[in-house]
Design goal:
By secondary structure, the chain is of the alpha+beta class. It is 19% helix and 30% strand. The strands form four sheets. Strands 5, 6, 8, 9, 10, 11, 12, 13, 15, 17 and 18 form an eleven-stranded mixed β-sheet that branches. Helix 5 packs antiparallel against helix 6. The relative contact order is 0.14.
């Protein structure tokens, strides 16, 4: 029963799946005694309520235990308020079919981690309880290698560093997250650590921006996985991601002054980019069943690369 979670075992016992000495037994607090005979019958996974929907998926890796997807920007990961279908989970239900042996007794894919709708890149999804449990523990213990590429406005000084804060709900807008002061007592505030490194700086050649470079391509390695973590941390450093419609207040691109037609066209590309410039570039972890060390990389999507090409012209 090592592949079943504690909560799943408790649910099965309460539902009558356990017998003690041949009789149904539902007492989850009972202390086992020598000589007693216990038998647990695990039922087949029940069909999920989520409707399977066939979609084209960029599958990086797949076996009987898990699947790694390169998610496009614009695709919601899981059904929720305002997104009842057309999500990655709906697509995985159609793609995986009978290979899903159930998460918590329901035949559905196990979402171990999520990335925002408008973020692109790598995700690992479990096909059964054992894989889901082991991967979830690896994420909780920070044993997953996650590297993101992001394009920020301005530059970071120093160019390499670590940001360690608390992140919780914004007191001004409940739809947003924010860095929370260590002095505040907030039950929703959670520890967040981002390691960043500047890969390249752009601008102040053909296009001038008062005081500094136009933008930077950075690498972020996440030690924790809080909601909107990179976006919140970069905005906190006054270097929000290009295109971020939620956390984008900062130096921005409004002050750019092009010196020629090529720069004008490049700036147009930047200003028309309407999602956060964030891509889950690398994902590495130990396989939950075979224990093989797996490493995956996904190149940036075309729209992200188009922004980099535009910045190269400044």
């Amino acid at each position: 029963m090592r592949h079943l979670t504690r909560s799943r075992l408790q649910s099965l016992i309460k539902e009558g799946a356990l017998t003690r000495n041949g009789e149904p037994f539902t007492n989850i607090k009972w202390k086992v005694h020598i000589g007693e005979d216990y038998r647990l019958t695990v039922p087949e996974a029940a069909p999920a309520a989520i409707i399977p929907q066939a979609m084209t998926l960029d599958i990086i890796y797949e076996d009987k235990d898990l699947i790694v997807i390169n998610k496009p920007a614009g695709l919601v990961v899981h059904p929720g308020a305002g997104n009842h279908d057309g999500t990655l989970v709906n697509a995985l239900m159609a793609h995986c079919g009978d290979s899903l042996s159930g998460i918590g007794g329901v035949a559905r894919p196990g979402i171990v981690h999520r990335i925002d709708k408008d973020t692109s890149g790598l995700l690992v999804i479990a096909k059964h309880d054992q894989a889901h449990l082991v991967l979830a523990e690896a994420f909780a213990e920070h044993d997953i290698d996650r590297v993101y590429h992001a394009i920020i406005t301005g530059v970071l000084r120093p160019g390499v560093g670590t940001l360690e804060t608390l992140i919780g709900r914004s007191p001004n807008d409940r739809r947003k997250m924010a860095v929370i002061s260590e002095q505040e007592t907030r039950p929703d505030a959670r520890h967040a650590i981002s390691h960043y490194k500047t890969l390249k700086r752009y601008g102040n050649g053909r296009a001038k921006l008062a005081g500094d470079a136009v933008a930077s391509l950075i690498e972020c390695r996440l030690e924790t996985g809080r909601t909107h973590q990179i976006r919140v941390h970069m905005a906190h450093l006054n270097a929000p991601l290009i295109g971020d419609q939620t956390y984008g207040r900062g130096p921005g691109l409004a002050g750019l002054k092009p010196s020629d037609d090529e720069a004008t066209e490049a700036i147009k590309v930047l200003k028309n980019f309407r999602r956060q410039a964030l891509h889950a570039h690398i994902l590495g972890f130990t396989h939950p069943v075979t224990k093989e060390v797996l490493h995956f990389e996904a190149p940036p999507p075309q729209d992200f690369q188009r922004v980099i090409n535009a910045l190269d012209r400044l």
